[in-house]
Amino acid sequence: MRFGLILRLALLVVGIELAAFGALGWFYVEKFSSAANEELHTRISLVGQLIASEELAVSVVSRQSLMEDLLGAPYLRGLVVGGSGRVIVATRPADLGRPVADLAGIDPAWFSDTAAEEYFIEGPDTLTRVAHIHGGSGGSPLFSTAITVSTARLDALKGSIALWGFLGSLLFILLSSAAIVLVSQRLITRRVALSLAVLKKVENGALEARIPAGSRDELGLLQQGINSMTAKLGALLQEHRRNAADMKKQKELLGSVIEHAPVRVFWKDRECRYLGCNTLFAQDAGYADPAELVGLTDFDVSWRDQAEQYRADDRDVMASGLPKLEFEEPQTSAGGHSIWLQTSKVPLRDENDQVIGVLGIYSDITERKAADTQLEFLAHHDTLTGLQNRFSLQGRLDQALATVRRQQGGLAVIFMDLDRFKTINDTLGHGVGDELLLQVAARLKESVRDSDIVARQGGDEFVVVLTDVDGTATTVRVAEKILARLRQPYYIKGRELHSTPSIGIALYPADGEDAETLMKNADTAMYQAKAQGRNTIKFFAASQNRVALERMQLESDLHRALEQAQFELHYQPQVDSRGRFVRFEALLRWRHPRDGLVSPARFIPLAEESGLIRPIGEWVVAEACRQLRAWREGGLGRISVAVNVSAAQLRSPTLVDSVERALAEHGLSGGDLELEVTESVAMHDPEASIRQLVSLRDLGIRLAIDDFGTGYSSLSYLKRLPIDSLKLDQSFVRDIETDPNDVAICAATIALAHTLGLTVVAEGVETPAQRDFLITQRCDFLQGYLFSKPLPAGEAAAFVRQHQGKTRRRVRPVQAADGS
């Protein structure tokens, strides 16, 4: 139940007045009671004293009416007790002469010798005074008096006074409360109601409403305060409305800025779900409307491949509360293209500064990244040729030197300058000169390994750094290859141009241990090459110059050797286990007009590197076929010859045709010829090798694997090769008398070959012990100096005639059951 302010005020006043009047009434009733009691006590004491002083006769105690007049109160009982303890005077005749102990309502103790001289006994509605009267000599009292009066009338008077006082107070309280209510109704309630009505208007938005000016009392001050507050509230509301309008404009402006910014903007919640983004961002994700991304994660859009990394970045930012600014990261676009972004992420916070998400801004820097890459490339590369430039060469050379120092390897710096370039450039123009430089750069890159360094030093100067070279020979081969490539004519704008290089070479560590020294010495060597007539190679060290010159001279002579018929074939016989001649192996020899016989170890690698090995190999096959025909016509009968085939020949698409042509030209069949292919050559490209060998086998030619065990030894391919024989390399045969490993290898190889249905030829047999061991292992054929050195054609014919009786034109392979 709710009470109004006036009612509560009235109740408060009533309460206060009740408390006040109650306290006041109680005080006055108590005062009256105390005064009446005191007067009654005084009157009884005075009457007692008058009797004691004998101013009143003792008999007065028995006189009812007189005593009531004297006492002013109803007299109930009176006694005078003598010294003997018997009643001598009494209001009640029956009490006379009786001992006090026999009287009802009388306590004998009142009259004992030990009792006080005077005392009062209060009972229910009674008051009794007991007094002891002594004589002049003291001792026991002469007599004692007991006077009892009624206090009922006095008590009734006190109750009446209290009742009428209460009723009067209550009447006053009611009247005063009514007056207060009426006055308050007029002075307070109406004004409060008016104030409430105004406040209601304010509540409904009428901030201009005011309470009419009133008095200066408290309520008036309150109304003034309400008016002041309303005015301030109105001002604040107006300001709030202005701020809200401004905020709306700012929000719209911010939204417009975000939407039309040339960057991608997005924001996510703590669960890394998108809360919003601009259209550019949405389009990157493959959506037209930013609203479509709300609630999605990075795992739901085109860059899901990078989602884990993006989520890790988001969580790092939210966990640390720190921004992550301008970092680069890749992204897969909606079209599936890889692009580069520059991203910044900052934590989103609420009004309590708690992190509630992450805000991200990124821009597509793919073009800038490409430009940076291009700038980086241009900083380290020549703008025309794309080769390393002078600046990059210095760093790359330092790195290469550090590597070879650790690995204790070798390194070569090849410095070259183009002869007659200035004349071409000045005569035909810079366009032609630039094209020439481009073609030179391309040829240089084609001439070296990817791990080597090719740089343009400037103008028409180029530098090649050969890393991890194993000696002068390797450097010479590469330098000669470069020289050969750059000697070839250049075709530019319909013109055939020639510009040969002058090449200088410095080697690490012989010619220098740092980049500067090596470059300087290579440059010096290059100028020496120019001074010696250009179009040549010059080593910085004299000894290395001699090696290079010898090699160059040997290559030059090698080109003439084929033209001038300086090559010849020597023939080394192969015999069976009984020493009977079986066939020859044709071995190439170069009879140099100045140096005599040149070791194949010197010129065969040079022929392979220079590309001469193919025409030389074709000559060997043709010459072997010619010699076979000559022997046959000379009456030596049917002899077969084994010929080695090089890697270049085996890879040549014309090999089969050239062999078939040689056989046909000299009237031979395929069975007259055996071709030997080294294991490493056959395994270089097994599938292609198999195709070539099958085609040769189809011509009836016997096929053998040479140097077996020194290369791949791949059994899976070996069993697929269409071969008839294995040649056991002399490196295994040489030490079978002393090395148990070679013994095991030879025995295992022979057994393996027989298991595969192949014959075995052991090379390099030089001692009877080697021969005997191989025969015990069922080796099919033997070849070596124990039987004969390689012989010129004439001596080979004599060897055949000498062993004509032992010749077996065809030796069948030893079967596995017999040999293993």
Give the gist of this structure:
With 820 residues, the protein is α+β, with helices and mostly antiparallel strands.
Could you characterize the architecture of this molecule?
The chain is α+β, with helices and mostly antiparallel strands and 820 residues long. The strands form five sheets. It has an eight-stranded mixed β-barrel with strand order 18-19-21-22-23-24-25-26, surrounded by five helices. Strands 2-1-5-4-3 form a five-stranded antiparallel beta sheet. It is elongated. The model is unreliable at 806-820 (pLDDT under 50).
Structural descriptors:
820 residues; alpha+beta; Beta-Lactamase; 8-stranded mixed β-barrel; 5-stranded antiparallel beta sheet; 25 helices; 21% strand; elongated
* Total tally of structural domains: 4
Identify the quaternary structure here. Answer: single chain
Write down how many β-strands occur, each being a DSSP E stretch of 2 or more residues: 26
CATH class of the largest domain: Alpha Beta
How large is the radius of gyration?
Answer: 70 Å
Q: Which architecture of the largest domain per CATH?
A: Alpha-Beta Barrel
What structural class do you assign from the helix and strand content? alpha+beta
Give the spatial strand order of the biggest sheet: 18-19-21-22-23-24-25-26
C-alpha end-to-end distance: 124 Å
- CATH fourth-tier homologous superfamily of the largest domain: EAL domain
Largest sheet descriptor: 8 strands, mixed, barrel
Tally of alpha and pi helices: 25
Regions with little confidence, pLDDT below 50 for 5+ residues: 806-820
Average pLDDT, rounded to a whole number, is: 84
What would the principal axes of the Cα set say about the shape?
elongated
Give the amount of beta strand, in percent. 15-25%
Q: How much helical structure, as a percent, in the residues? A: 40-55%
Classify the fold: give the CATH topology of the largest domain. TIM Barrel
